[in-house]
């Protein structure tokens, strides 16, 4: 018969807000190890009991592997925070994006860049579902314009998300159909996988697709 032994004191993983770990994660692995070790001790051959050195080796091996896993997780967490700290500073600014943007009472700033050989340029507006709601001739000029969100009858379009494309033509020939960048206010920055920005109104885009930033007008 094997006498009961006190469970060894093992390091446990940090848990709680801000640690990136939970009691169901690394700490649970330690508990599983203790359960398995206790069962091994209870069921070992009394004529050939496990030596103290074997016990110490098992304990040290597991503790070492677990400590390495903890170190790797902390490094990943730190890397994510460092990589995301840049885009976190963008919150509150306006970003130029080709994702659908929120239109309310204030005009939107659009960046217009038609094909250089175009003699006719039409701005096409689509709602969040991709349905065309407006089309207007704006001429071949290049630069920023204020879009006031008027339908073909001159009435203001409902508040909501809108996306824009530019159709550049020369005569009857379509030279280019390009997406138009619009400025939208950033309300959230999501870290990981290069970062993602969430705009006012709920639309979002990868940080890598933002082509310009500015302070709110």
Automatic annotation (TrEMBL):
FlgD/Vpr Ig-like domain sequence ranges: 102-171
GO BP annotations, alphabetical order: bacterial-type flagellum organization
Keywords, sorted A to Z: Bacterial flagellum biogenesis, Cell projection, Cilium, Flagellum
Pfam families assigned to the protein according to its UniProt record, in alphabetical order: FlgD (PF03963), FlgD_ig (PF13860)
Region annotation (Disordered) ranges: 1-24
Record has Disulfide bond as a keyword: no
Domain of life: Bacteria
Job of this protein: Required for flagellar hook formation. May act as a scaffolding protein.
Recorded family membership: Belongs to the FlgD family.
Protein's name in the database: Basal-body rod modification protein FlgD
């Amino acid at each position: 018969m094997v006498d009961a032994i006190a469970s060894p004191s093992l390091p446990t993983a940090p848990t709680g807000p801000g640690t990136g770990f939970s009691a169901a994660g690394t700490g649970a692995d330690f508990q599983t190890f203790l359960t398995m070790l206790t069962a091994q001790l209870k069921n070992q051959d009394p004529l050939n009991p496990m030596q103290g050195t074997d016990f110490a080796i098992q304990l040290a091996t597991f503790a070492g592997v677990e400590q390495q896993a903890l170190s790797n997780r902390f490094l990943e967490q730190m890397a994510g925070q460092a990589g995301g700290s840049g885009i976190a500073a963008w919150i509150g600014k306006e970003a130029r994006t080709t994702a659908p943007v929120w239109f309310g009472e204030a005009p939107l700033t659009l960046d217009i860049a038609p094909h250089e050989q175009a003699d006719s340029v039409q701005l096409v507006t689509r709602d969040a579902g991709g349905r065309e709601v407006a089309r207007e001739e704006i001429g071949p000029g290049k630069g920023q314009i204020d879009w006031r969100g008027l339908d073909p009858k001159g009435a203001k379009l409902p508040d909501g998300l809108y996306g824009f494309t530019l159709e550049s033509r020369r005569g009857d020939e379509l030279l280019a159909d390009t997406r138009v960048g619009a400025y939208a206010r950033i309300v959230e920055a999501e870290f990981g996988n290069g970062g993602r920005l969430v705009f006012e109104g709920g639309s979002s885009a990868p940080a890598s697709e933002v082509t310009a930033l500015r302070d709110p007008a």
